[in-house]
Fold this sequence. Notes:
Elements: E1 6-9, E2 15-19, H1 27-34, E3 37-42, H2 50-57, E4 63-66, H3 74-82, E5 87-90, H4 100-106, E6 110-111, H5 118-133, H6 136-144, E7 165-169, H7 173-186, E8 189-193, H8 199-214, E9 222-224, H9 228-234, E10 237-240, H10 254-259, E11 265-268, H11 277-286, E12 291-294, E13 313-315, H12 324-342, H13 371-374
Parallel strand pairs: 2-3, 2-4, 4-5, 5-6, 7-8, 7-10, 8-9, 10-11, 11-12, 12-13
Antiparallel strand pairs: 1-3
Helix pairs in contact: 1-12, 5-7, 7-8
Amino acid sequence: MGSLHWRTVNPHGRRRVLVTKELPGTRWLQLLTADDCRVDVCASPSTLTASDIRAALAGGCAAVLGQLTEPWNADLLRALKDAGGGVYANYAVGFDNVDVEAATRLGLPIGNTPGVLTQSTAELAVALTLAAARRIAEGDAYMRAGRFTGWHPTLLLGQLLERKLLGVVGAGRIGVRYAQIMQSAYRMDVTYFDIRRSAELEDFSATYSAFLEARGEQGLTCRRAASLDELLAEADVVSVHTALREETRHLLGREQFARMKRDAIFVNTSRGALHDEAALVDHCRTHPTFRAALDVYENEPAMCPGLSELPNVVVVPHLGSATGWTREGMAALAAANVLGILNNWPVWNRADIRPFLSASAPKAAPSIVNATELGLERYGGTS
């Protein structure tokens, strides 16, 4: 398979599963080998190209467990199908790297790994918000450069988050959990923008507000914004949690950044292409009191020229799900998606995926994004 280094586990297994990058933990591998799969794992650290994957598919393959950094377009999916592939499992909750419509036309189920990374990604968004508000990265660089000569009343003054307005763009699982943490920790009012009302977020806010009022404190508000522009104009912190689709690409650009408060904080832990990175660089350069904190980038792994030079921007390398428990759980879910489809088990597709992280997981595929379009049976007897 070319110059890449591959390792094979259970070489005489009855079905070949291709895993395009080493994964943390051991449970995912135990699941696959216990089902008598031959598992070929790419042990090279580089990101596989379409040509690399095509070469690896030679000789046949029942399934691929791949990465969000790989271009699973119509041609590559066709190559998987032609190699005998029955499922592609993405090691991520997002699947913007996959042409799902093409996969559906080919009859290929596409798996993802939701739920297990909700808390870890929400926690990172909280950490980035705090880092931007309290200028943590600037302070770290200041100390390392030996510039600290003693306490000073005006040194690196940041912002207080308590009782400010939090704007959440995308009220899915991660956006809701982030808002819940920020509201309960910092008593922030919340405005969210989503195509659907989030009863979960609104109910949480109402319950917590009633708790505060019972203690003699001021209550909180949570409302759905009528438009993105309305949210941007009002919020002190704007955190993006929506999915990347063609209609959400560059959801935030020059006009949107200009509508935000001059000292607002912008956080993105979802996908880099949701904002225009060049426009963000220009805005941060001309608005030094505006702060941004990013975990994702428009052209990963590259950053837009000038971004790394800006002191009012915090940058980390796509760490949203980077806890051991989460990444190991993602691997187990991805393996379970492969096994579920290869064994013709029904599809789980429920919000609570914790049963798959236990010793006795259900005989089901945890999450197949095109299950409805393919008419796959649902766990419990529906399709």
